[in-house]
Every structure is written in C-alpha cells, then in structure tokens.
Amino acid sequence: MTDLDQRLAALEARVQELSDTLEVMRVIASYAPSVDGGAADVIGRFWTEDAVYDSDADAPLVGRGPMVELAERVGGLTFGAAHFFNLPIVTVQGDHAVVTGESNTYHQEGDRYVVARVSSNRWELDRVDGTWQVRHRVNRLLDGSPEARELLARGTRESLG
Amino acid sequence: MGTADDRVAGLAARLEQLEARLRVVEDLAAINQVVASYGPAADSCDGDAVRALWAEGGTYELQGWFYTSDTMAETVTSDLHHRYVAAGSAHVMSAPKITLDGNRAVAVNHSRVFVHEGDRWIVDRAAANRWDLERTPAGWKVRRRVNRLLDGNAEARSLLAGEEPPAADQADRDQTASDR
C-alpha cells in the first residue's frame, strides 16, 4: 500500500494548495460586494484584529473598528458606486498569502458612470484559526506615481519566483 | 468482494482518475495566473516579467504591432507605453474562458486599458484577446496572443467567438515596435 499512500499524500498536498488559492481568491472577491452592499458586519470578519489598510485616500486605518466605519460610510453613499477588483495574481505560501492586482471604482455622475479611481493593490493574508483573513492592504492610485507601480512590480516578481 | 489485490488495483485506478482531474484544475488555475500577470507586469514596466510569460518563439500580435519573445520586452519601452505609464495606467483582464487540450490551451477574454486623465480615468482601449498557451518545463507559457480592438471590426468579434485568427503574414511581422 506504500505506493498508494504516497500518491494519496501527494494528492492531498496538491488539493490543499489549490483550495487555499481558491479560498484566498474568494475572500478577496468578497470585499467589493460587501463594501458596496453595506455589509459592514462581514467586513469586520474580513480583516484580522490588528489589520492595517494603507490607502492614499486616508491616513492608514488600523483594526476592525475603522474598517467597519469605512464600510458603513461607503454603504451610505447617496450616489451609485461600484468597486471592482480585477483578476489578481495569487501567491500562497503555507499560512500566508499575497494577492496583487488592480482595482477600479465607478461613480455615478448624472446618467452615466465615470471611472473615479484606478489603483494598484497588495493584500497580505494570514490563515487565522483555519480561515483566511487580510492582515495588510496597500492601495495606491495609478496616477503615474512610482509607488503604485512598485506594488505591482513586487507582486509580479514574487509570483514569478 | 474481490481479493485484496483486486481492491488495491481498484484504488489505484480511482487514484489515477483523481490525479488526472486534479491536473486539469491545476492547469486552469495556472493559466488563469498567466493571464492575470500580464497587467501588473506591463503597468510596472517590467519587460523581463512580460517576457517570462511567453514561450520561446511566442508572438504577441496587436493591430499594427508585432512582437516575438525576443522583442517582447519592447512592449513596455515603447513611446505609447511610456505615455500610458507616466499618466497612470492599468491593463486589466476579464476572467478568461479557458479550453484545455492536453499540453495546449486556448484562453479568450476581454482586456481594458484605463488611463489617468485629469481628475479621472478613461477606458482608452477595450479589446478582444485570444491566448494560445503551451505547457513547457517552466509551466504554462503564451505561444501566441492576438489582441484586437473592439471597434466594430469582424476580426475582434471572431476572436471572442472562438475562431483561430489566421497566421500573421510577413507584412504583419515587419511591423515592429520601431514603426511607431
């Protein structure tokens, strides 16, 4: 049975890696709909207790309280807003994961929508009690700033190995 | 109930099926990552990273521009690309429709380029893409990417419909980055 045991163990490891990748993508994909839908309670669980959200729109937010306040603010906007997170690069290593990608926000303006923000993002996640949570997010406007580009460069390099 | 040997043989056969099914899902995930990596590589002007996504001898065919794996790094050094990146740009991919065929695969998707302009971003390009990929010792790589602007032309639509575009002719191949 040794051969079967080894093959099973190899399968289990490959399934673990793949399911981690999909679970991390699911967590990241949940952020924008939760924010636009005003699901502030969900947002609390999305972040770790000591999470940091470092965006050039605000001073860095630390901890779940400010994250929930941000989600409540976005959920209460009186015009249409849609946060899109585009197809990301996902790198999982054990209990840590990095997601790199570009996001854009549409704002309603009269009878149409305009692209109000386009940003680069780096999300760092930890597996906490078996659940993936975001520990750190950096968001920088893609307005020609080198810092926004460096976020993308770093994620690309890490993923290519 | 068969013999113990029969049971082992049965388990081995089921394992083999599982391994094959898992390989398909791994392939889909890996190809998804190749497509997802293009934008961040291009928008951070990392010519080596863009090149690393392509197979040796692979091509990237845009209207008016033709790159091979040897010249792929020039995609991020062109004047147009520099204007994009200096203003602030995002090359963004939609989720690809992937069709696997052993060591080959085809992915079809939409791409957009957002460019910063004043206090907002505009969608400078919206295009159809067909990616022909191959499994190499270094993982899945792009053998051919064809990109066509969605400007009403039939070629862009046929890419989305899943048709394989005709091979580039010599005139296409002569359109290198230096022509711009």
Coarse shape of chain B = elongated
The main pleated sheet of chain A reads as:
7 strands, mixed
Q: Kindly state the mean pLDDT of chain B as a whole number? A: 93
- Oligomeric organization of the protein chains: heterodimer
Low-confidence stretches of chain B: none
Which overall shape of chain A is indicated by the principal axes computed on the Cα atoms?
globular
Low-pLDDT runs of chain A: none
Q: Show the largest interface.
A: A-B, 41 and 41 residues
> How far apart lie the N and C ends of chain A?
36 Å
Query: Which band does the percent of strand residues of chain A land in?
Result: 35-45%
- Could you tell me how far the N terminus lies from the C terminus of chain B, measured between alpha carbons in angstroms? 73 Å
Backbone CA Rg of chain A: 18 Å
Strands of chain A, total number: 7
Helix content of chain B: 25-40%
The biggest sheet of chain B amounts to:
7 strands, mixed
What share of residues are in beta strands of chain B?
35-45%
